[in-house]
Amino acid sequence: MIELLHIDCMEYMKALPDNAFDLAIVDPPYGTGSITYMPCRRYNAAGGFIDRYDVAIATLDAKRQRPRFKNNSMKILHNQNAKTTINNFGDFNTAPPPEYFKELMRVSRNQIIWGGNYFLLPPSRCFVVWDKCQGENFSLSMAELAWTSFQSVAKIFKKQSSGNARYKRIHPTQKPPELYKFLLRHFAKPGDRIIDTHLGSGTIAEACHEMGFDLTGCEIDADYHAAATTRLEVIQQKCKSNNNE
């Protein structure tokens, strides 16, 4: 069964029992160049405030520009005419709070977390590297990393990113279906229940449908949820048509 929910994943997970799912495969916002929630102390300063973190994060200026260097503080200045506020959880530039990871690890036995190199997660010997097979002059990231809870060796998947004639790009961080099939082959067992807290374009739903895994996907954005639902319905209808031929 594949269930795609239009819901805040935090609300959904809080209602679940421990180990409700066998495997979580998630791709939350990385928080690059913006806000990463970690334990901190707050001080009033220069008409705004300074957050002092226990670990090195990054700086963020009043124009919300990407950070240029690492530091142990984040400054957000504001005034009555131009106010800068922290975005709500779910914004592309806002990483999940620590409570998210606590709940995720409570409701799932194992986890694969894309962008795990951006979050404070336990050490892992089994990172997954997605090599995007781009040239040396490629302006964006040539690879992405996923943290896993598995005590296994690191793995590499090589394929260009989505957005070709077969797979229309729906989401700005959309990943190819083959990547999720790779993860399911290497980390999921027959009968495993999968959860994805940030469904996005619904690529994982396509992979789970084709490989016979149960999936629950959460998506807080109504437009992305609708697009993912339509995408899955089209795939299921094609599968039925092929089976009837």
Which key features would you list for this structure?
single chain, 245 residues, alpha/beta, Rossmann fold, 2 domains, eight-stranded mixed β-sheet, three-stranded antiparallel β-sheet, 5 helices, 24% helix, 24% strand
Summarize this structure briefly.
The chain is of the alpha/beta class and 245 residues long.
Structural account:
This protein is an alpha/beta fold and 245 residues long. The protein has 2 domains: 2-28 and 96-244, Rossmann fold; 33-90, no CATH class. The protein has helices at 9-14, 98-107, 177-187, 203-211, 222-244, and strands at residues 2-6, 21-26, 40-45, 48-53, 73-76, 108-114, 128-131, 143-148, 155-158, 193-196, 214-219. The strands form 2 sheets. The chain has an 8-stranded mixed β-sheet. A 3-stranded antiparallel β-sheet has the order 3-4-5, with no helix packed on it. Strand 10 (193-196), helix 4 and strand 11 (214-219) form a beta-alpha-beta unit. Helix 3 crosses helix 4 (203-211) and helix 4 (203-211) packs parallel to helix 5. The longest helix has 23 residues, at 222-244. Mean pLDDT is 78; it is low at 53-91.
